Structure formats: C-alpha cells, structure tokens
Amino acid sequence: MLRAPVSGSTILAESGKLTIFVSGDKSAFDHCQPIFNTLGQKIFYVGQADEAVYLKLVINIMVGANIQALAEA
Predict the structure, then answer these.
(1) 26 given a catalytic annotation
(2) Per-residue confidence band for 23, with pLDDT thresholds at 50, 70 and 90
(3) Model confidence, pTM
(4) From 17, 26, 42, 56, the catalytic residue
C-alpha cells in the first residue's frame, strides 16, 4: 500500500501538474511510477511508512500560518 497525498489545485490536476508525496513500499512505488508521472510533474518518494502524510500535514500547517500572518498584517 502506498500513501500519496497531492498538492495542487483542480486546474493543476486536470493538466497533470500536481505535486505528489509518496511513502510506502519502494517496489510498489516503482511499479506505480508511470501513474504518478501522468498525474503530476513533481513526485517525491519520502520513505517507507507514513512520511508522505506527515509531510502534507506540515505543508498545510505552514500555509495556514502564512495566511494567518498575512491576515494579522
């Protein structure tokens, strides 16, 4: 099983330009690489466990913090 959260808008998804973070079994990732290449331009294999999910959460927190900082300004 692979974990593969994506980053990008609907427009990027339709044009195959998503950023994809993948974690899980490396051989499964290698097998699914053509699918990821169709869906996104930037594909990052980040580890064997749940690293991709954690990375996506960290990125979402950073975006939220930036939006909050701009709102305060």
Answers:
(1) no
(2) very high
(3) 0.83
(4) 56
